[in-house]
Amino acid sequence: MIHPMRRFTLVGALLVMLGTTATADTIFVPLQQPTVADAVAGAGPGDTIVVVASAPGGGRATARPGIRIVGAPEAYVRGSLELTGHGLRIHRVSFRNADVRLTGDRALVRRCRFDGERGTGVRIRGRRATVSGSRFQQRRATAISIQGPSARVVRNSIDMRRLGRRSIRLPAQASGGIEVDGDRARVRGNRLVAIERTLVLRGDDARVLRNMTEASIDGFLVRGARALIDDNLLHQDGFGIDVLGDTPVVTNNDVRNFGLFGFGGGPGIRVHSDSPGGQVRRNTVQQHQRGFDLRLCGAEIGSIYHGEVDTFSLEPSVLLVGDDNRLDGMSSQTTYARTLRVVGSRNEIIGVFATSGSNLRTPAILVEGDHNTLRDLDVGARGGGGVAVTGDDNEVNGGSVEVWFGTCVQISGHRNRVASIAARLRNYLGAPSAAIVIASGTGNIVTECEARAEDHRDSGLSNAATATVVRGCTLLSGVNSPDDAPEGQSVRNSGDFAVFEDNVLTVVE
Fold first, then answer.
1. pLDDT tens for each residue of 116-150
2. Angle formed at CA 382 by CA 381 and CA 388, multiple of 5 degrees
């Protein structure tokens, strides 16, 4: 316990720091007024209210402009406090089991502390509200809730571990961390621990920067146009970042799942936009069944990573739906799941490194649509196949594909082109297959590829399409079969070739 004389000395020092002296415009609670609400009701414009000992909030009051409320050490406010007025400023006040509601523009809550299981945190309605440098513990409802444009939520700590467990699920009463409804919100440098819903933000031109979550359930839910989500670290069990709105920018984020066996309740990063533009770059997702769910058009996507997933799932590691996107640089490492699925037209996929495990039903990369381009691939798959393309006028150009079971490259459609691919099929135990398969269509082209089938039962190339062009390829079968094994078939052809020239074969039938 602080001695009363020392307490007033500390109060005086605090007032000097705030540029206020203990004159007639300073009201002490509970010495001069029994509650904070009574002090606010009796204060004039720009007056300062000092809470020097524990006191009740006192309920509702209307404040004159520019009133400041400050707290002395070891003093705290309990119960409800509902203030209406512009320019309210609350500084270094401790609240215990309190409900704080402020209505008015330019409200400021700075370096305060909120404790207790029965309180609901701070709720502000008005423009240009700011909550900064405050601590929230044991809250039952949303810790910070702001309705109004130009809100600022900066460098706060919200920790609900005392309400629940650091495990897969938290109690239902630990409902939320930060919720903002309004345009031009800024949420920066906050730490959120053991929270069911860490951030819900609705409004245009939002900025969510350098925040961190730990042992929480769901991550950031952002709804609005032109959002910027940058340099955040999320460690949670549900979805990571979920953005819906025009021309979003999601960059430099690290999303990690802390649940058992990577059973994340949603994708690590989901970005949906109906308008052209946007960026998703330099993001990492780990231990989520689904890494990225991207439904974009005309967007720049690159340097994304999804890995360390050990669960069985038919969902792709990265799902890209839309037209005219450019994905430049992707790495995905999964044990059982497909790594990439592209649905749309005129997409450009460059520099994909993908390893996929024993998913025997789906290829590592599946492209569905027309006029798509895949370049510089590095694909390794134990089962299900390497690259499958369905559609017309697509191109697979450059790189290597190695598969244990299935097909390295499979094409279905018209006028597709496969060029400069090193395809290696190690199908020792599976059904007979081929390194490159032209399954259907007409006018497909295979040039300057090396297709190696290591088992004698498999072929370098299988063609079931019409008017196929194969030029300048090396097509090998049985390259690692025993000496006494039958000779393999370099090419299996049940369709017809328009051109078949300058190829190197082992055996052709």
1. 777 678 999 999 999 999 999 866 678 999 999 99
2. 45
